[in-house]
Structure formats: structure tokens, C-alpha cells
Write a structure and sequence with these properties.
The protein folds into 2 domains: 15-130 and 284-309, Rossmann fold; 134-279, Isopropylmalate Dehydrogenase (3-Layer(aba) Sandwich), CATH 3.40.718. 41% of the residues lie in helices and 18% in strands. The chain has helices spanning 19-25, 41-52, 64-73, 89-102, 115-122, 163-180, 201-217, 229-233, 235-241, 259-273, 297-309, and strands at residues 31-36, 56-62, 82-85, 107-110, 136-142, 150-153, 186-190, 222-227, 253-255, 276-282, 288-289.
Length: 310
């Protein structure tokens, strides 16, 4: 699938999946996965791909008649899968989360439901998926023809996290990345500038986070900040600006200051670079596959592979 649009600025390259990562994840036993909102073609194609790759055993949750109708349209035999009928988006979300809460599902996947409906069920104090960890979201961004991935957190869950919260968010991401094969992630705490200034509050927060990281606040990672986006990823920008750094120009993980920054960053990479944005919620009782409803099947397939590695 490729990104198409009226604007010639948008990428028309086909999305790719990280084949080696899919192959590695498929070595394990497939996991029972509750799919919240399984009525649409994009969701069903994604689930079918993940099942055929040996990653998941899906439970399809939503309007049962619509699920079966769509499966027939795309010529997918779902007779061997459990289908749970629901009557509303919130009912779908609640029943999907209940499967994970009870241990009857090992992965939760956001299908066609809205994020707020699913997360409302996830954070329910009695029947949700809370743990003693802060929940946060991570995107793995992979690009056509490029082996290295770029990770972004938090672009979907925490709106305007403070310093302590961003340390938790960064640690969640680092711990997950190590399981994905990044041995000691290089972490850039993002701001608009590389020198802390009271005029740019995010730069002051970034400097504090980097300092706390050096004293053990974030383990098993190399953390620096503040760093602007160009300095985080571009070796050429490093040379021009004369910056000496162990992270700049080679960051594995971008920790954004707000959800707006993260959301804009990941969608820019999707639409202008055909990045495959594999998204997970971390810190819950089970891994939660959470991508944009507009994302292609490649994103959910890769997300399932990452969920298998946690």
C-alpha cells in the first residue's frame, strides 16, 4: 500500500514492513489477540496478514454481521475465529479489554474504535489493564529501503507530560527498544533549541531530564537534551553547528515534549517519507497495538511483531 494524495508533495512510495523483524517475531508461538472494532477492510487485512505471518490468533470484536460481511467481501475465511458481537463502540472496547484483563487475550489491538473509547476501558480502575507503571505510547518508524528504525515517544497518549512523567515515558521506551534489539538506545530529548533557555520552556525541561538521566533516572541508555530535530538526526547539521555529542546526529529515540509535537512528527514521516508507523501502548497488563485508524495494514502487522517481542 502506498500513500496517495492530491498534493504532489506527498510520498507515493509503497510502505514496507521490516521483514527481518517479522521473521524473528514469528518464531514464537502466536498470541491470542483481542481486536477492538474488526468491521473495516483495513483492519481485517491487517489481522489476516498478522495471522498468516504466524503472529496472532485473533478474536474479532464488533458488529458481528458487519464483520462477517466484510470478511466475505475480502474473501477471508474467518470461520475458525471467535467473533464477539457488540452494540456500540464503548461496548466493543469494554469487551476487548475484558478479554485481556481476564488473561484470555495476550495482546489487545485497536481496530476501528476511537482511541479515547479504547483507553477509557483500558484505564478503568477495576476492570482495566493498569499496572504500577505509567502507560505511554511508542512509535517505531521504518522507512523504505532503510534498515535503521527511528522511535518516537509519546505521540499518542500523554498530552503534556512533566519532567518526571517524561522520564517514565523515556524509560518505558528504552526498555521496549532493548527487547526490539537496540542494545543501548541513544535518546534525544527534543526541543526547538540545543541550549537551555527560559524563553523556551521545553528546553529547560529537556536539560533537567538529561541531567537526571545521567544520575540514573533513565537506565541502559545514552540521553542528551535539549536537542532540536535537525541535531538529533543529521550528522551534517552537527558539523555545521560544531556540536560535540554522543547522541546528536544518531538518535534512536526522540522524546517529544507534547503530544502535538509527536503527532505532527510521526504523521509527517508517514505522509512525506512513507514511514511505517508501528505503534504500541507500553506499561499496561498486555501490549496494546495502537495505530492511527488511517494507517495501512503494514503498520498493524509490524505492531503485532513488536508486541510479540515484549
Amino acid at each position: 500500500m502506498s500513500v496517495r494524495g492530491a498534493s504532489t508533495m506527498l510520498s507515493t512510495q509503497a510502505f514496507e514492513v521490516p521483514a527481518a523483524q517479522i521473521a524473528e517475531a514469528s518464531k514464537g508461538k502466536s498470541k491470542r489477540t483481542a481486536v477492538a472494532g474488526a468491521e473495516t477492510s483495513v483492519v481485517q487485512e491487517s489481522v489476516r496478514n498478522a495471522h498468516e505471518a504466524g503472529l496472532i490468533e485473533p478474536v474479532l470484536i464488533g458488529d458481528a454481521a458487519a464483520i462477517r460481511s466484510m470478511a466475505k467481501q475480502i474473501d477471508w475465511d474467518i470461520s475458525s475465529f471467535e467473533v464477539i458481537n457488540t452494540y456500540s463502540e464503548q461496548d466493543t472496547s469494554t469487551k476487548a479489554v475484558a478479554l485481556a484483563h481476564s488473561g484470555d487475550a495476550e495482546i489487545l489491538m485497536k481496530g476501528g474504535v476511537h482511541t479515547d473509547a479504547l483507553m477509557r476501558a483500558v484505564v478503568d480502575k477495576e476492570n482495566g489493564l493498569r499496572t504500577n507503571q505509567r502507560m505511554s505510547h511508542i512509535f517505531q518508524m521504518t522507512f523504505p529501503g532503510v534498515k535503521q528504525a527511528l522511535y518516537v515517544t509519546d505521540a499518542a497518549l500523554n498530552v503534556a507530560p512533566n519532567v518526571a512523567q517524561r522520564i517514565d515515558i523515556a524509560q518505558n521506551a528504552v526498555s521496549a527498544m532493548i527487547k526490539f534489539g537496540v542494545s543501548k538506545p541513544k535518546v534525544a530529548i527534543l526541543s526547538a533549541v540545543e541550549i537551555a533557555s527560559p524563553a523556551v520552556p521545553s528546553s529547560m525541561d529537556a536539560a533537567e531530564i538529561a541531567e537526571l538521566a545521567m544520575s540514573g533516572g533513565i537506565e541502559n541508555a545514552i540521553v542528551e537534551g535539549p536537542l532540536s530535530m535537525d541535531l538529533a538526526v543529521s550528522p551534517e547539521a552537527i558539523k555545521v553547528k560544531g556540536l560535540k555529542s554522543n547522541v546528536a546526529g544518531q538518535a534512536d529515540l526522540i522524546v517529544v515534549p507534547t503530544i502535538e509535537t509527536g503527532n505532527t512528527l510521526f504523521k509527517t514521516l508517514v505522509y512525506f517519507r512513507s514511514a511505517t508507523a508501528a505503534g504500541l501502548v507500553l506499561g499496561a497488563k498486555v501490549p496494546i497495538v495502537l495505530t492511527s485508524r488511517a494507517d495501512p495494514p503494514e503498520a498493524r502487522l509490524t505492531s503485532c511483531a513488536l508486541a510479540m517481542m515484549l
